[in-house]
Design a protein that fits this description.
Family: Belongs to the ABC transporter superfamily.
GO biological process, one term: peptide transport
Number of helices: 10
Organism: uncultured Microbacterium sp
Structural class: alpha/beta
Shape: globular
Largest sheet: 6 strands, mixed
Order of helices and strands: EEEHEEHEHHHEHEHEEHHH
GO molecular function: ATP binding; ATP hydrolysis activity
Protein name: Putative enzyme
Number of strands: 10
């Protein structure tokens, strides 16, 4: 078994409390997980669970209060800005809203060539690389001269994925990358992520609130609740036979096309919530 590409150990992230003498808010409470080269780890939880904070901490965008983050065996928990910039060729990100993450006044070629130029790639080589990137994400060559507003949401997300791939990273943090897309476009973009991974060997930390999404793409799944990982294991097992009550609630809340099965899930979820409420009152 290969060594982890990313290893998070006992990670605590705190933010200052609001108001005079307010206690700090602890967004992550001793979280540990690892991602192997070429693996997808899905990080799932509801809003406020801490999943996005974990992704931001891996990117150096959230303060590490305690614990460590190791990338390829090196401690990156408290890197200086210059060191973090140097790491950007290894770790990239795809955000939820592709339009807000793309400069609306730049052409697609300019957007994709920018990180290459900053990295010292020649103009000729950058143009060639842009053509390859567009081909990788299934966009036509003439997309180079167009602006982001000329594309659909799914196409813009393909551009964002292409930009993340520009420097050939080994790890991409995907922060709710398909939640703003309709279901059919979601499926196509998820298949694109899988195809790119099979071709390049890139690893993903895939952050989402949707259990069905992580089931489709993840090798392993970590479930977050109130700043802690409450369940972590094989993706198929966690998303189809969850053991923790919180994961079971997520599973029962996920829609299914069969109305009878959907009603059975609603009844089971209601019974689970009633049982938890009774235990809390005892």
């Amino acid at each position: 078994m290969s060594a982890p590409l990313l290893e998070v150990k006992d990670l605590v992230v705190e933010y200052p409390g609001k108001g005079f003498r307010a206690e700090p808010f602890r967004a992550l409470k001793g979280v540990s997980l690892d991602i192997l080269p070429g693996e997808t780890v899905g990080l799932v939880g509801e809003s406020g669970s801490g999943k996005t904070t974990l992704g931001r901490a891996a990117l150096g965008l959230a303060p590490v209060t305690e614990g460590t983050i190791h990338y390829d065996g090196k401690d990156i928990s408290h890197l200086a800005r210059r060191q973090r910039r140097a790491l950007s060729s290894e770790i990239q990100v795809v955000f939820q809203d592709p339009y807000s993450s793309l400069n609306p006044s730049m052409t697609i070629e300019q957007i994709l060539a920018e990180p290459l130029t900053v990295a010292g790639v020649s103009s000729t080589e950058a143009k060639s690389r842009v053509r390859d990137l567009l081909d990788q994400v299934g966009l036509p060559a003439d997309a180079r001269s167009r602006l982001p507003r000329e594309f659909s949401g799914g196409q813009r997300q393909r551009v964002a994925i292409a930009r993340a791939l520009a420097l050939r990273p080994r790890l991409i943090v995907c922060d709710e990358p398909v939640s703003a897309l309709d279901l059919s476009t979601q499926a196509r973009v998820l298949d694109l992520f899988i195809e790119i991974q099979e071709r390049t060997g890139v690893a993903y930390l895939f952050v989402t609130h949707d259990l069905a999404v992580v089931r489709h793409i993840s090798h392993r799944v970590a479930v977050m609740y109130r700043g802690e990982i409450v369940e972590y294991g094989d993706g198929e097992r966690v998303t189809s036979r969850p053991e923790h009550p919180y994961t079971q609630r997520l599973f029962m809340a996920a829609p299914v096309p069969d109305p009878d099965k959907q009603e059975e899930r609603r009844i089971a979820r209601r019974a689970l919530l009633d049982s938890e409420a009774a235990q809390g009152a005892a």
